[in-house]
Design a protein that fits this description.
Layout (H helix, E strand, L loop, with lengths): L4 E4 L2 H8 L5 E6 L16 H11 E11 L10 H12 L2 E10 L14 E8 L10 E3 L4 E7 L8 E7 L2 E3 L3 E4 L21 H11 L5 E4 L6 H8 L3 E6 L2 H19 L2
Bound molecules: S-adenosylmethionine (SAM).
Length: 261
């Protein structure tokens, strides 16, 4: 198995036969959306996928599993069923994060507009890498604050320096669609592309340069493209040859961009 390549095939079989155990540092992936999307009639088995992912994940490695519920006559909660399956396979549910869609949310006539999916952060034991992403604070610089550290316990105003940035919270908003998820028009030949920024934010958070980043259901190749840009090793698998063509083209265009400076 060569790294920095896309492979066509069933990822469960691919992991079983081609990937040694304990070698993947980070997986960022998204399973097929129940019956909402047509994936050539293929029936998805979350349990065997998660079992394979647990085997190939390095101790301390992380699996980011991006999933939304089908909403028809109520929410399916397949998202949570899959999270519990991941735990049964041995993963720790390290966090349940929200991917908020800033545009094209799902409208409902009798409930509030649905605008998010879950990003489950599963880990094999305690995560070995966490590089927290920061954001600027609203108020920063010097400000007068109250201190009563003196022996008389009297409140006094003293100048305090407010922090310029803070660690982000676990709700991550992204624009979706062309110009939001990606500028690669070709990517939208796939029906369910997730944002490049979502992939890169997780890659930066849970891996380091040189680490192996995997996407067993890579679709249009978003995770692998961002892993390549961020100097990680990567591996992408999808059962659809047509989707792998798109993924290969996106990474090829990336090489051209770099070649042109
Ligand atoms: C939600 S899409 C992933 C989209 C991707 N994150 C992107 O940004 O383009 C899920 C993908 O899983 C693939 N898939 C489903 N079952 C699979 C399996 N057993 N092995 C490999 N790929 C599979 C589908 O072909 C589909 O492209």
């Amino acid at each position: 198995m060569n790294l920095n390549q896309f492979y066509i095939g069933d990822a469960v079989e691919f992991m079983r036969t081609k990937i040694p155990e304990n070698c993947v540092d980070l997986t960022v992936t998204s399973p097929p959306y129940e019956t909402l999307r047509d994936y050539e009639g293929y029936e998805f088995n979350a349990a065997t996928m998660l079992q394979g992912l647990f085997r190939v994940t390095r101790p301390g490695g992380v699996l980011v599993w991006v999933v939304g519920d089908k909403i028809k006559g109520g929410r399916s909660l397949v998202s949570f069923e899959q999270a519990l399956l991941a735990r049964e396979q041995g993963f720790v549910i390290h966090d349940v994060m929200i991917y908020q869609k800033k545009n094209t949310p799902f409208m409902r006539s009798n409930a509030y507009t649905n605008c998010y999916e879950f990003m489950f952060v599963f880990s094999k034991g305690k995560p070995k890498t966490f590089n927290p992403l920061k954001e600027p604070t609203k108020r920063n610089g010097m400000e007068m604050g109250v201190s009563n550290k003196g022996p008389d316990a009297v409140n006094r105003k003293v100048p305090v320096e407010l922090k310029k940035e803070k660690t982000r919270n676990n709700i991550w908003p992204y624009a979706v669609g062309l110009g939001g998820s990606t500028n690669d028009k070709i990517a939208f030949q796939h029906p369910a592309v997730f944002p490049e920024k979502l992939a890169s934010d997780h890659i930066l958070s849970w891996s380091n340069p040189g680490d192996l980043v995997f996407d067993p259901m890579c679709g249009s190749g978003t995770t692998c493209k961002m892993a390549s840009i961020l100097g990680r090793q990567w591996l992408g698998v999808d059962m659809s040859a047509a989707y792998i063509d798109i993924a290969r083209e996106r990474v090829r265009q990336l090489g051209l961009q770099y070649a042109q400076g």
